[in-house]
Amino acid sequence: MTSETSLNGARILHGYLGPQDQAALVAALRRVVAQAPFYRPVTRRGPMSVRMTAAGRFGWVADRRGYRYEEAHPETGQPWPAIPQEVLAIWNDVSGCARAPECCLVNLYRGAAKMGLHQDKDEADFDCPVVSISLGDEALFRVGQVEKPSPSGSVWLRSGDVAVLGGPARLAHHGIDRVRSGSSSLLEGGGRINLTLRVVT
Ligand SMILES: O=C(O)CCC(=O)C(=O)O
Ligand SMILES: [Fe+2]
């Protein structure tokens, strides 16, 4: 059963995906990762704690030169695989946006991986929301303001939850404080996968 809460303008759809839908998504992601393996972005500030890959026309890539969208995987040089139908169906249901997502970023959190407070603002268009799907271990999601990181609040995202950052909250600061390791057995090898869908151009 889905129940909806909101946190500084972010909509959280708790329990959006049931166990079967989550398993189908994991199977689809296995095919994505077979074509576009996870890599560890290394920025000027050092290696990121999450591993990343992507599907869609663009992947969001971070390296020592900065952050940007790229049409090829930074290690294989291959174009990104297509966004799975199951993922597009979620976007169509919750985004309220007529355009299709151009990037499905796939973040893998294992061990102490986390993500600092940031804004998703490397896109050319902010009319469509950012839609974020959680799979696997529970994560403490922090959402602050648009103009500044605080005041902020946090909510636990569980496997199958979907978060939507749209409208006035499209540019809200957000991040992952920590992941509760071992809280889900959905993913082989454990951890958490987050899918972040965005219109880029
Ligand atoms: O892992 C999450 O839930 C958030 C990921 C995120 O904010 C991003 O990739 O920009
Ligand atoms: Fe983000």
CATH homologous superfamily (4th level) name: Alpha-ketoglutarate-dependent dioxygenase AlkB-like
- What's the total count of β strands? 15
The structural domain count equals 1
Strand order in the sheet with the most strands: 1-2-13-10-15-8-5
Biggest sheet, open or closed, and with what strands and sense? 7 strands, antiparallel
Specify the oligomeric state.
single chain
Structural class: mainly beta
Explain briefly what this protein structure is:
The chain is mostly beta strands and 201 residues long.
Features:
201 residues; mainly beta; Jelly Rolls; four-stranded antiparallel beta sheet; 13% helix; binds 2-oxoglutaric acid; binds fe (ii) ion; AlkB-like_sf; oxidoreductase; iron
Characterization of the model:
It is a single chain. With 201 residues, the protein is mainly β. It has a single domain (3-198), classed as Sandwich (Jelly Rolls), CATH 2.60.120. It is built from two helices and 15 strands. It has helices spanning 19-35, 85-94, and strands at 3-7, 10-14, 42-43, 46-47, 51-55, 59-63, 66-70, 103-109, 115-118, 130-136, 138-143, 153-157, 162-165, 174-180, 192-198. It has a seven-stranded antiparallel beta sheet, with helices on one face. A four-stranded antiparallel beta sheet has the order 9-14-11-12, with no helix packed on it. The chain has a two-stranded antiparallel ribbon with strand order 3-4. It is globular, with a radius of gyration of 15 Å. The termini are far apart. The model has no long low-confidence stretch (mean pLDDT 97). The structure holds 2-oxoglutaric acid (AKG) and fe (ii) ion. Fe (ii) ion binds next to loops.
